[in-house]
Amino acid sequence: METKTIHLEMDCIHDHLNKTMTCSWLNGEVRIVVYWEAGTLGVIRNDQVVETRDLEGLTLDEFVRLEEQCQAAAESLSQFDDMAA
């Protein structure tokens, strides 16, 4: 079996009007949405909320780890896209 390295880009959009930040992979299939006013974030896959967290007490290292987990999930999912092509 051939081993293939996959690298995906993350898009990050800051919506100052609605006070949100969205980090997304695979054209939004996997994303983290930070709701600054509510003090929460949500991890979303295929428009379904997978996890929510409070921002209070969330460290930068924990947020980066969450981004890395989403990146890994998106890379895993993208392999199925490649197989269908």
Number of helices: 1
* Strand residue percentage: 35-45%
Oligomer: single chain
Total E-strand runs: 5
| Percent of residues in helices | 25-40%
**Bulk shape:** globular
- The poorly predicted ranges are none
The structure class reads: alpha+beta
Spell the H/E element sequence. Answer: EEEEEH
Query: What can be said about the biggest beta sheet?
Result: 5 strands, antiparallel
Radius of gyration: 14 Å
What order do the strands of the largest sheet run in, or round the barrel if closed? Answer: 1-2-3-4-5
Description of the structure:
This protein is α+β, with helices and mostly antiparallel strands. The chain contains 1 helix and 5 strands. The protein has one helix spanning 60-84, and strands at residues 11-15, 20-25, 30-35, 40-45, 48-54. A 5-stranded antiparallel sheet has the order 1-2-3-4-5, with helices on one face. The longest helix is centred in the C-terminal third of the chain and has 25 residues, at 60-84. It is globular.
